[in-house]
Design goal:
- By secondary structure, the chain is of the alpha/beta class.
- Helices cover about 40% and strands about 25% of the residues.
- It contains 11 helices and 15 strands.
- The strands form 3 sheets. A 6-stranded antiparallel β-sheet has the order 2-1-4-5-6-7, with helices on one face. Strands 8-12-13-3-14-15 form a 6-stranded mixed β-sheet, sandwiched between helices. Strands 9-10-11 form a 3-stranded antiparallel β-sheet.
- Helix 4 packs across helix 5 and helix 5 crosses helix 9.
- It starts with a strand and ends with a strand.
- The mean pLDDT is about 95.
Length: about 375
């Protein structure tokens, strides 16, 4: 699957962009703050109905505009062309359409355009709170498992309803209704737990292989999926902790508290890893996610590499270049401040490529 044509109007600092894209390599070069990341983020938005970096939709509309538009024309393996449109207007619900037909639920679109983005912000998967690591699992699984994303939506809704009731005075709580929300949480939480557990078991050896290739080392990397559901019955946990939850006003047990511990030679990498090891760790995770999606889905995912070569030594950069140069990878978008990073990649690839200059939101192709 490839993105053939991209149209952008008023997305962050990109006032108007029209690009005919290479089916293989698309390189965007320019100084920081010029719009390279915004371009890749727009491609991400067309896959996930949201920005990679900003959860507030109104903040992605160019500051002096009222409307934002994204449109992508994709060519799919064995099924022809598809057009995806997104329209955003301040104080109105966003529109998301496939071939001019609006989606009833945005979740129906997730997974239609498989995509993996690697960015310096991914360090938060390691250094941030547990919600960052749950988000990694959720995004990875949701792209190939519709049952998972629907269960996650229902679980989060039931959790929100339970938490709202826990904040009431005791004499106002409808315990029959509370138990119904808990039953919903148990049903979906157990499904989510099982699918997360299966994913981590299959994903770990793939990740370990990528890490060893990039790091050129025998360091042992692994995950430990920690969940309260591993040792206990979820329904019983909710009942046992109900009084405490009422006292503090929120739910203290469930899959929304799961953790994915990230280990390097048996120790938490956030404590023992160097800057280079940390970056190699999350880049390897994302490349392993790409491989996993490739093997579980029907389409080759799009790969976005946003300024990832900074602060990696030459040998690790070389190994990443070798990996993305292989036939396994399809269409790739790369941004960097240094043209030399692109030249190293392009030297190795006997494929179509486009190079673009990005300057103050203006994007110009500089090779033909």
């Amino acid at each position: 699957m490839i993105l053939k044509h991209l149209s952008i109007i008023n997305y962050k600092n990109l006032a108007q962009v029209e690009l005919e894209l290479s089916p293989k390599i698309n390189c965007f070069v320019g100084n920081n703050g010029m719009g390279k990341t915004n371009l890749l983020d727009a491609v991400y938005y067309l896959s996930f109905c949201r920005s990679y970096t900003n959860p507030i939709d109104t903040q992605i509309i160019k500051h002096d505009a009222d409307v934002c538009m994204l449109q992508g024309k994709y060519e799919f393996e064995n099924q022809g062309e598809e057009e995806i449109y997104c329209g955003l207007r301040r104080r109105q619900k966003k529109q998301f359409k496939k071939n001019k037909k609006e989606y009833e639920k945005l979740s129906d679109h997730i997974g239609f355009i498989p995509l993996v983005m690697i960015s310096p912000a991914d360090i938060e998967i390691i250094q941030g709170g547990s919600e960052e690591r749950r988000k990694f699992m959720d995004i990875a699984i949701s792209q190939f498992d519709k049952e998972y994303i629907q269960a996650l939506i229902r679980y989060n809704n039931a959790l929100q309803q339970r938490n709202a009731m826990l904040k009431m005075d005791d004499n106002e709580i409808d315990f029959t209704l509370l138990e119904l929300w808990e039953d919903q949480m148990v049903e979906d939480g157990e499904l989510i737990f099982g699918k997360r557990q299966a994913f981590v078991e299959k994903f770990t050896p793939i990740f370990d292989e990528f890490y060893k290739k990039i790091s050129l080392s025998n360091e042992n990397v692994t995950f430990d999926y920690v969940s309260q559901l591993r040792e206990s019955n979820f329904g019983e946990l909710l009942r046992q902790n109900r009084r405490r939850d009422i006292a503090i006003g929120h739910t203290t047990t469930g899959i929304h508290r799961d953790e994915l511990e990230m280990l390097l030679d048996g120790f938490p990498i956030k404590k023992v890893g160097s800057q280079g090891q940390n970056k190699t760790y999350f880049v390897s995770m994302k490349l392993a996610q790409f491989h996993y999606l490739l093997k579980t889905g029907k389409q080759t995912p799009i790969l976005l590499l946003d300024d990832i070569f900074d602060r990696l030594d030459a040998e690790r950069v070389e190994e990443i270049v070798k990996l993305v140069s292989s036939d396994e990878f399809g269409q790739i978008f790369i941004s960097d401040t240094n043209r030399e990073s692109f030249d190293k990649i392009l030297e190795r690839m006997n494929n179509s490529y486009h190079i673009y200059s990005v300057n103050n939101g203006e994007i110009t192709q500089i090779n033909y």
